[in-house]
Every structure is written in C-alpha cells, then in structure tokens.
Design a protein that fits this description.
The chain is an alpha+beta fold. The strands form 2 sheets. The chain has a 5-stranded mixed β-sheet with strand order 3-4-5-7-6, with helices on both faces. A hairpin with a 2-residue loop joins β4 and β5. α16 packs across α19. The protein starts with 25 loop residues before the first helix and ends in a 5-residue tail after the last helix. It binds zinc ion. The site of zinc ion has 4 residues, from α17 and α18.
Length: 673
Amino acid sequence: MTNPLLETREGPFGLAPFDLIQDDHFAPAFSVGLQEHLAEIDAIADNPEPPTFANTIEAMEGAGEVLDNVLSVFFTVSGADSNDARQALQRDFSPRLAAHSSAIYANAALFARIEDLWDRRDSLGLSEEEARVLFLTRRGFVRAGAALTGAEAERMKEVKSRLAVLGTSFTQNLLKDEADWFMPLSEADLEGLPDFVVDSARSAGEALGREGPVVTLSRSLIVPFLQFSPRRDLREKAYRAWTARGANGGDTDNRAIAAETLALREERAKLLGYPDFAAFKLETEMAHTPDRVRDLLMAVWKPARAAAMADQAEMAEMLRADGVNGPFRPWDWRYYAEKRRHALHDLDEAELKPYLQLDKMIEAAFTCSSRLFGLAFAPLDLPLYHPDCRAWEVTRDGRHLAVFIADYFARASKRSGAWCSAMQSQARRPVEKAPIVINVCNFAKPSGGKPALLSYDDARTLFHEFGHALHQMLSDVDFGSVSGTSVARDFVELPSQLYEHWLEVPEVLSEFATHADTGAPMPAALLDKVLAAATFDMGFQTVEYVASALVDLEFHNGPAPADPMARQAEVLEGLGMPDAISMRHATPQFAHVFAGDGYSSGYYSYMWSEVMDADAFAAFEEAGDAFDPATARKLEEFILSRGGSVEAEELYTAFRGRMPGVDALLKGRGLAA
Ligand SMILES: [Zn+2]
C-alpha cells in the first residue's frame, strides 16, 4: 500500500497532498517516521568520525524529516478538524512521541558528542548562529535530563510521558464539554439580540442539525450573547455552563488532571536541580525569574483593579435602574459594559459589525504587510483538509517566500481559540525550506451565503495571528530550530501583538472597513468612536487576564498545590479579585497552562510582550508614519527575520536602542495615572 504521507512531497511548494491523505495513513506513517528518525540519530551518535558541527549538530537539524511531515499534517487536522479516529490517534501518538524524544535525549553517545563540541566551542570557528544552535541544543539536552543517570533518568522518562498523556486528556475533555453543551433559544428569546447574533445562533443550530437557534460555548457566539441578551436568566445559564467547562464531574473533569500535572512538573524541576517549576521554566525566558514576572503583573494589577471597580460601580447603578435588586454578577458585566459603551461612546458592536467583513480584513492584513515589507499574495487553488481553508502564495519582488493558509470559521470539530502554526519552518541548512504557515480562528460562519462579518475583537485576532505568520514567513536564518517563532515564550507575542496596532491605523480602517450591503466606507465619526473606545472596559480585560497569569505563576512557584482549586481561590482572595469578574481562564479550562508545557508559568508572557509591542509601535509613531520604511526595515532585520538565532533582549535593543518599561503599556491600556 502506498502511503501519501511517506511519499516525497512533489506537489507545489512541498505542500502535503491533503486530497490523498486518509485517517488510516497516519498510524503506519507515524511508526515509520519514528523509526527513521531514531535510525538517523543513531547514525549520528555512532559516527566513527570525531564530532564536528556538521556531522553532529547540523545533521541533527536535518534528521526526522519524515516524522515532521507526518506530524505537521496530523497536528493541523487534529486541532482544526478533529473526529473520533483522530482523537484516538492523538491518545496513541502522544505518549509514544514523549517516549521518542526522551529516547533521543537519553542517547548518551549523542550527548557525549554534543558535550565534546561544547567544550571545544571557541576553537571550532563557528558562525554566530552555529554557536547559538550548539548552545540551545546542549541546553535542551541538559534540561531534558541528559545528564541524569540510573533511577533518576528512569523516573524523568516516566514523568514526562505521563505529563504528555495528561495534557492530551485535558484538551480532549475541554473539547468534549464545549461540543456537548448548547442552549436552545425560542423566537422570543432572540428579542434584543442584533441580527448577527441571531444569524450565528441559527447557523449554530443548523450545524447541530436542529430546527431552531441555539447558543453554544464557542467564544464567538457566547460572548456576543452575554453582551446583548437582555434575559438575565439566560445569560446566567449560559455563563455558568461556559465557566463550568472541565469541571462538570465525571469523565471529562479536569481538576484532578491539573493537580497531578502540577505535582509532576515540580518533581521534574527538582530532578534537574531547580527549586520549583517556575525557576526551571523561566530560565530560558526573557523575564528569567518569578520575581520579575510578579513585579510586572502587580505593577499592572493595582491600576487595572481600580479602573474595573470604578466601572463596576457605574454598571451596578444601571442594574438597579433596570429594577434588579441584589449584587452585580459576572453574567451582568458584558451586558452592562455594552450598554455603557453605547452610552459613552455611542458605539454599538451591531452598528460596527457590517463594516468588518472578513474578506476585507484579510485584504487589510495583507496590504499592511505589502506596505511594510513588500509582500504580495496570490490565491492558490490547492486541495486542503477542509473546504473552509484558503491558501495564498506569498512572494516578494517576484520570488517565492511562503505559502499562507487560513482556516477562519468555527466548527464543532475545531478546538476553541485561535493559533498560528508552521506546517514547514524556514531553513537554509542542511536543506533549503520555504515556510508553509497556517492561521486557524473561530469566527462565526454566516448562513445563507451572506458575507462573513467580524466583531472588532475578531478583526484584532485576525491581525494578531497574521503577525505570528509574518514572523514565520519573513524568517531568514540557517537552521529550522531557531527560525520563525522558535523564540523565548515571552518574546513570541511581540510580532503578533505589534501587528494588531495596524488595524487601528485610521487610514487602514477607512480603506478596508466598508459596509457589507452598501460598500460605503466606515463614516469618520464611527471610526473616531472605534478608536476612542479602544481602551473601554480595559480594567475588566486586564483584571481577568492578570488574575489568570498570577494564578499560573503561583501554581508553579513554590510547592505544587494538592488542591489547585483551593490554591486558585487563595491567590484570588489575596489579590482582592472583584466578585463580578472571573479569571479569563479558570483552572479547569486553562488549556494554555495544562494542555501542554507551552504557557505553564508563562501565561504572563502576553503582557510581557505587550510592554514591548506598545513601545515598538511607538517607534513608527515617532517616525510620523505607521508605514515608515526605515523603521519597517529595522523591524524585519532585527526582529522578524531573526527568529531565535539571537537572544531576545539583544534583538529588541538592536531594534529600539533600549529596553521598554511598563509605562507605554499602561498608557496604551488607558490605565496610566
Ligand atoms: Zn499569539
């Protein structure tokens, strides 16, 4: 049987042949990929020649191509278009993958070659990037426990493989709780909801094969429902279901998984000689220590909480004026905030929405990158994994640069949130590779052939994920392990959050925000309101985020809590968390922290990056032009093209001439005193 996942990629741009790939191709291709990678690694480790950079580090960079090909396709479809077969495969692959990487890190002969190179690093005549890749490779081995022996090495293997299993279960439980719940709405329940919410509730109902409209737990439906529904009882019901995800008891409950994960992470850090998991994790980050993270978060917390409490006092008045006695509750916040936004800024999302057409916002994101970096986009007609996916060839001066794929619409088979991943990362050595990058979002799909409309939040998400894509597509380094977004976690959100600023450039909105029915550009007055409203309710947004970031930090700093829910309550109590605001991601739903290691004791990093993005965009403002060519050139040269080939501080300082403080962020959020 031929397996398309194992064939040489002869299609255009090395893209996977999605039209030929069936679910039963994954398991055999995965096994072949693992075996080939191990054989390649063994050949490197057992090479009779003395170690050189080329025969060891560069050879490792080139190893595992088949496995990469299989996994890049598999992770794309299992995240964006899952089904029972793919979920079963994921449960099977995840411990085997953890064991595979442990086996490579435990290869003593390989580690001895790396150590030998490391000891002789100053006499090897390495380029700056080669030296960096050697440093990172060795650090990766040491942190994975390559220096451990005997029982400790065995235990490390068990811990890591168990953590991988727990992460997968956490994600699948969340997905299941999200897919299982819906609330049918009668025609009377639709009263007060703007058309776009009604449309997406109807289309969610259709997707579930039901007659009438429903509210689901998809963020792009439940958030606008909470914003607009005057029915306090329905808001409460929807809100409670939303915040109960992963904590409903039974098979899909994530609370015990969270406790076990935290205990195993602490054990892992201690085996490696770190006092706790946060110390281990932050070693490789720009922030470096838990104290620096806590200082940043607390500097933002106080003004944010004060702003949120002042907003709440005004909204509690509005609640009373509506004849409701009793306290202001979390399911009231978004509804009254929307009313208040309407009153203060006379801006209602429903009036705004017809101007934010998905296709126009895609064009806006593309055009900004053309003006800044000279990129051009041409649609590609290629078989992809779902009919909602679209692809473009990205070129500059007529030369191929990358393939960009976008999968924007929500569906039940897609996990929630939005993300960017590289199906192929840029590299020059040992083999030249051009990036293949995908953006996945969860925007509500319109029914009946209407144009897709976005909320302002959605439009920002589109720009955000496209910023990550640019980081991949403009990458210009030798080695795949340091290309694109392979950077410190607290640096990786800089390009994405920075790119959001271009959505707010007045000339961009006036050109691309045109009315879906009339084609008229967004009126100047509405545009002004959008910009003035940009910092509205920022106290709430900052509080829900910072609370999550601090809980994440405290989970990993010091001994692991036996009862994470109790520890969460304790941290929130200590902060004086407002009663009417909940964490943006409470523990049972906190996929950033528990689906894998990525953002564990690292959720703060969005804000760390925001400190920089506010300051970095100010460089364009100081130049007097949001598309200033010289500043754009520096941004590409020092940040977007460099990946992780240089330390983040060094890159930022080269771009801006100095490091930023917290002031630009507070000003940007409207929280400056
Ligand atoms: Zn991001």
